[in-house]
Structures are given as structure tokens and as C-alpha cells.
Amino acid sequence: DVVDTSQRPLLHQPYAFKTITAAVAYINTLPPTVSSTDPLPYLSPITGFQWDYALIHLLTGRYASSNAPDPSQSLHNQLLANLETFPIQLPNRVSIQGTSALDTVIELGRGEGPAFLFGHTAKSRGAGTFISSISIMGANPWLDHYPPPPSPWPSKYSCAAIALSKNVECELRIDDCFLFANGVALLADGEHGVHPGHKITISNCSFV
């Protein structure tokens, strides 16, 4: 807990993380206090301050793993990768806000999509979550030539920029994003088509 000298909680305390994965890992260390399973809302036993939602703000840059093309082959100003880990499973009530879709770019290497996976567990079903003002590119459309590494989710998810699992009903809002050069922009899985419980809101996005 972060408090000032009068022991009052600071309502806005930025933390600098090199990767989205590190920020998510920090949030996941919070013990459940209000929910029986989720880290948020978090009620501080020291200050009594309740942390309801988290917003991970992405600055201008290239968010990619070591598997992404080297800077000389990147489409994005030859920026170095920040060594991200994919897929990212955002906890419920945790959102992503980029600077803009023009200059906050998540670049996937072949076989390592999706960038974001929702619904693999109930803790990351997208409840109270939005993704805004980023671009996602490079999800693998060639599963036969570049098979993804073994994982607990279907290999078809690797062709998607964002994937919603059939395991759990998902809620998600996507605003002002540009999803391009992916096998599939958004994959919503289900036994026979889209999961009937998925609730997806998309506004002002481009898919190429």
C-alpha cells in the first residue's frame, strides 16, 4: 500500500513496468479481498482504500517478444522489442489504454498469437475490461508452416490478434484499435460457432 505522510492512500500512483506482462503479474499478486477469486477490487487492510479498476497505460513504442522480427525487419521505425510475453491474460477489471493506434503497436512473432487471450479461466473473462488505442499485428496465419508451441489452448488461437476462449463467457470492449496483418483479428470460440454468452462491443476499429 502507498500512503502519504498523513496515512491517506494515494489515489493515483504510477508504476513503471517494462512489459504489460510485468504489470499484470504485479496485479495478480494482490490477495483476493472483496471477490473470492479476483485480485480486484482490492480492499487494503491498512488504509481501508478500495482499488476497483486498473488501467495499464502503454506509451509510444513497439511491444514485442524476442520472437518478433529484428528491428531492421520491423515495420515500425526499427524500434527494439520490449521482450513481451504472449498471450497476455488480463485479469477482470484491468484495461489497456495506448497512446494511439498509430504509435502504440503490439507486434506478434510467427506462432505466438494471440496478443490477448480472454476466458481461458474465469479470472480473465474480460469483465470490466476494455482495450483502447493500440494496434496489433503479426498473428500467424500459417499454422502448417509455423506451428505454435504446445499450450493449454487450441493452436488455432495463435492466428488471432485477440482470442476469446469457449471455456468461459467473456465480456470485452474494444475501442479505437487497428488490427492488421493477422490471420484473424478477433477469434470468438465455441462448440458450434461463437459462444452464446460472449458479449463483445467494438467501436471505431479497423480490421485489415
List the helices and strands and how they pair.
Blueprint: H1 20-28, E1 42-43, E2 50-51, E3 54-58, E4 61-64, E5 94-98, E6 104-107, E7 116-118, E8 130-132, E9 135-137, E10 160-164, E11 171-175, E12 178-180, E13 184-188, E14 199-203, E15 206-207
Describe the structure.
It is built from one helix and 15 strands; from the N terminus they run αβββββββββββββββ. It is globular, with a radius of gyration of 17 Å. It is mainly beta. The longest helix is centred in the N-terminal third of the chain and has 9 residues, at 20-28. 4% of the residues lie in helices and 27% in strands. Strand 1 and strand 2 form a beta hairpin.
Quick overview of this protein structure:
Helix content is 4%, strand content 27%.
Shape type? globular
Q: SSE string, helix = H, strand = E?
A: HEEEEEEEEEEEEEEE
Low-confidence stretches: 1-5
Mean pLDDT: 83
What is the helix fraction of residues, given as a range?
Answer: under 10%
Helices, by number, come to 1
Tell me the major beta sheet: 5 strands, parallel
Assembly annotation? single chain
